[in-house]
Amino acid sequence: MKIPVIAIFDVGKTNKKLFLFDEHYRIVFERSARFTETVDEDGDPCENLASLRLSVFDSLHEVFRKDEFEIKAINFSTYGASFVYIDESGKPLTPLYNYLKDYPQTLKDQFYKQYGGEENFALRTASPVLGSLNSGMQLYRLKHEKPSIFKQVYKALHLPQYMSFLISGKVYSDMTSIGCHTNLWDFQKSGYHEWVEQEGILDKLAPIVPADSVFQASFPGNNYAVGAGFHDSSAALIPYLVSFTKPFVLLSTGTWCISLNPFNEEPLTSEDLKADCLSYIHYQGKPVKASRLFAGYEHEQQTKRIAAHFNVSTAKFKNIAFDTHLANKLQEQTDQSAGMSPQESLAIFGKRDLGKFRTETEAYHQLMIDLVNAQKISTTLAIGASTVKRLFVDGGFGKNVIYMNLLAEAFPQVEVFAASMAQATAVGTALAIHQSWNSLPFPNDIIELKYYAPVKKVAS
Fold first, then answer.
1. N or C: which end of the chain has fewer CB within 10 A?
2. What are the Carbohydrate kinase FGGY N-terminal domain coordinates in residue numbering (predicted)?
3. Domain boundaries in the chain?
4. Residue 42's pLDDT band (boundaries 50, 70, 90)?
5. pLDDT recorded at residue 336
6. C-beta separation of 251 from 239 below 8 A
7. Which pTM does this prediction carry?
8. How far is the C-alpha of 451 from the C-alpha of 460, rounded, in Å?
9. H or E segment at 259?
């Protein structure tokens, strides 16, 4: 008896993975690859699109040869802000330009001058001014710098939809890519911004389909469904939207700590944008308020500084227990960063004199207090006026007991949980098209939760 499975391609900047999930969302097969980057015509590093395309076909050939599995569906999640420009035969016309590629200042100034100024434009499109990270600006650049190539473009596909096209032969767009700081979508009118039509770009964009759409495969094999593909940060939210109905915020922690609130539909303000808070659109087409903080990176830098000062290994900080009395004492002496932006608050520990701490444990507790104070400001922006009941923390900080206890104290009005699940992005991408391949009901046990209660302060 063959096991019914879904194949998910999860394409990050560094690692490209293929997972097979069974109907219980357990991983039954996994393959990982890393490709050497290539360069574009300016010598800037970029994804090796040819290697990526070959890898998809090689991987599928491999899993189709496995007699124990029956592939019922395929879907894709990839990093965002990346366009593949194809001609009418489906051939890419340019390299896959890197979203970190420098954007020409003159062209940027010309764009914002013509379309209402940076602040007004950013508010309407929920897109802070990010250069190439605003993927619509890559299209604008192609039109103005390489008009002959632009004329040949049949469709511009975000990377997840290009990968779906490789298997289905169909060209579509999806809102999780369009709605994420692309400069393309006008959140006030719920449609493309007027510049897209004025510049002749609308014709180059494929029709938008719902995120749970599936198509027939043109790739040989059994009769299986092909999903339209997802922007990875939207995919990671899906298991939580499927599992919980009470309003929540997901705090996804890594190098960046991103607070995602799918229950806040307030329009963005200029202050939000300045504090690195924006909106994007999740897989059901609704806006998500999201605030970012570079807290994982700051934690890494400051733990190195503490380790060097006290002559200990950074590994020591992985297992430091939470000391309530020490935390209380340090908090009494800590200015709560009133009136600061999240970024200003995040910089506080870097200015502290480590000579004032008696031990590395004391210094580390102070670092975590400062980080959580900054996180509170950032996450509060995403919460806004919404009545959030729960705060789920996934990623690295969810495993840090000092961080989690301090966070529970910082948000006494909500239930704070460390949440863990293997491969949230890939699972979300599979869940989005659950009805198309899975004969079982939605699972209710794919996320492990650990509750953290606010610690009662004890008089010393």
1. N
2. 6-196
3. 3-232, 236-420
4. very high
5. 67
6. no
7. 0.86
8. 26
9. strand 257-261
